[in-house]
Specification:
The chain has about 150 residues and is of the alpha+beta class. The chain has helices at about 15-35, 40-65; strands at about 1-5, 70-75, 85, 90-95, 105-110, 115-120, 120-125, 135-140, 145-150.
Length: about 150
């Protein structure tokens, strides 16, 4: 099952225009007050308009942050994948859960690595101790569990 991280997307352009106009209006008032007088009243208005400008800039940044939905595959990449590799003198048995269906399961042993592909873009590579005569002798897939027998000569 895929989950989604919450992201924000603002498609309403009218919500963007009002804070921008208010910010411009406050900037004009700030400029006019500071040009007229530098008394305590002018400094008071300067402090108020500066605080309002900071607030509106933060609001604009929140509105401009455009992010998209990103799927998070919890059941494939979100948890550790566990498997068993049982070694005997002449045989190894590999057992693991692999998403199916059975016709999408593919197994290949090359260069000391067991390549497993399954459904839902499931791909794993497991290092295996081999010698020159190692080969896959049998594999079974039942109820989501893959069992692979690897014969060592």
């Amino acid at each position: 099952m895929s989950g989604y991280k919450r992201k924000y997307l603002s498609n309403q352009s009218i919500d963007f225009i009002f804070p921008l106009l208010a910010l411009l209006f406050i900037a004009l008032i700030d400029l006019s007050v500071t040009r007229i007088t530098l008394s305590y009243t002018g400094l008071f208005f300067l402090a108020i308009t500066s605080a309002l400008m900071i607030y509106w800039v933060r609001e604009l940044k929140k509105m401009l942050r455009i992010e998209y939905l990103k799927p998070v595959q919890k059941d494939i990449e979100g948890k550790d994948w566990l498997y068993d590799l049982i070694k005997n003198n002449d045989e190894m048995v590999f057992v693991a859960e692999v998403p199916g269906p059975e016709d999408q399961i593919s197994i290949m042993l090359t260069g000391g690595i067991l390549h497993i592909k399954g459904g839902r873009n499931f791909v794993r590579e497991i290092p295996v101790e081999i010698n020159h005569n190692t080969s896959i002798s049998d594999f079974k897939y039942r109820n989501g569990v893959l069992t692979v027998k690897i014969h060592r000569a």
